[in-house]
């Protein structure tokens, strides 16, 4: 599958960075502290902002404190956060005005995880605090394209979570799914799905970006 686009918009967790173990440890710890069934939280937390997940389990007046608690747990658990296959090869090929990251995490947390994984922090990073509506709402991807000065319809979004795929489709972008945290069937709607970015090649020039995705 070949994508000829003007820019590439990446999700972070599960797409560029493998933080699944850390994420699940955080939510299990938090759930235990609040006497909530961890499996229930884990079913809904992936690919979504912390505040959106917390809102499903905590009364409104307690949410700010709960979000800060989760953030603190996350920031102190970077031990096994690593780059996912292909990420270190692809990112250096992109000029700074040809890529961005759109994440459901905070700016501080994503910078920490990218750094722990040995990956660059993009000039355009749309984080949880930068939007009013988290994924699956398209706001984050629309904002990233605008900050790059690109038409979202000429952008490729790379996502690992159903909420992110939904957000990208709603924004009007083309979508490449990576089945790193969910099955290919869960990424319904993506133009193409690969196991991870190691099966992709990419060239970038003044005219745009060409990404070829293998099976």
E-strand count: 11
Helix content: 25-40%
CATH level 1 class label of the largest domain = Alpha Beta
Question: Based on the structure given, which CATH architecture of the largest domain is correct?
Answer: 3-Layer(aba) Sandwich
Main β-sheet description: 6 strands, parallel
The figure for the number of domains is 2
Side by side, the strands of the main sheet go: 6-5-2-7-8-9
Which class best fits the helix and strand makeup?
alpha/beta
Query: What order do the helices and strands follow?
Result: EEEHHHHEHEHEHEHEEEE
Distance linking N and C termini = 8 Å
Give the overall shape.
globular
Q: What's the CATH topology name of the largest domain?
A: Rossmann fold
Please explain how this structure is put together.
Helix 8 (162-171) links the parallel strand 7 and strand 8 (174-178). The chain folds into two domains: 2-19 and 80-213, HAD superfamily/HAD-like (Rossmann fold), CATH 3.40.50; 20-75, no CATH class. The chain is of the alpha/beta class and 215 residues long. The protein has helices spanning 20-33, 38-45, 50-54, 63-75, 87-90, 107-116, 139-148, 162-171; strands spanning 2-5, 7-10, 17-18, 82-83, 99-102, 125-126, 155-159, 174-178, 192-194, 200-205, 208-213.
